[in-house]
Every structure is written in structure tokens, then in C-alpha cells.
Design brief:
Elements (H helix, E strand, L loop, with lengths): L1 H12 L9 E6 L4 E6 L6 E6 L11 E6 L2 H11 L2
Antiparallel strand pairs: 1-2, 2-3, 3-4
Amino acid sequence: MAAHFLAALNLLNAPVFKDTSPLVKKGNNRDYSYEIWNTGSPIGYYLKVSMPGKYPNSQAPQVVGSFKTPQDALNYLDSNYK
């Protein structure tokens, strides 16, 4: 009986949610902001870029590609958004 009580008590103390956010990396500079997301599938990762300019809420982020690794996405970002 005591073992069942302790098992139930452990369930009450366990976290309900764990950090499973698919967001891998987020950043910005003067001209654009970006997010790299994990798809959870063999595709790997995708890159979202927004170029807010003068009006930050005027343009929605656009998915600009899918990549095998986050580093591939950053390389694409460095090559195409300078």
C-alpha cells in the first residue's frame, strides 16, 4: 500500500509539460529577423525570414527553405541575406 502511495505522489510531482519547442534558433539584425525550426521529420529544419523594415508588423515571416541541419540554414541565411 505504501508503494502505491509513493508512486502516486511521484506522479503529482512530475512536470506536466516538458520543453518540446521546435524552435531551434532565433535572431535578427537591422534588416531582417529569422527563426530556424525543427520539423520533427526527416526533412530536418526550415528557415523563416521576415524583413520588417520601417514597419515591424507589415510583413509576415516567409519560409525560405528546408535544410538537413541548422548550420545549413545559417549558411543559406549568410549567403542570401546580407
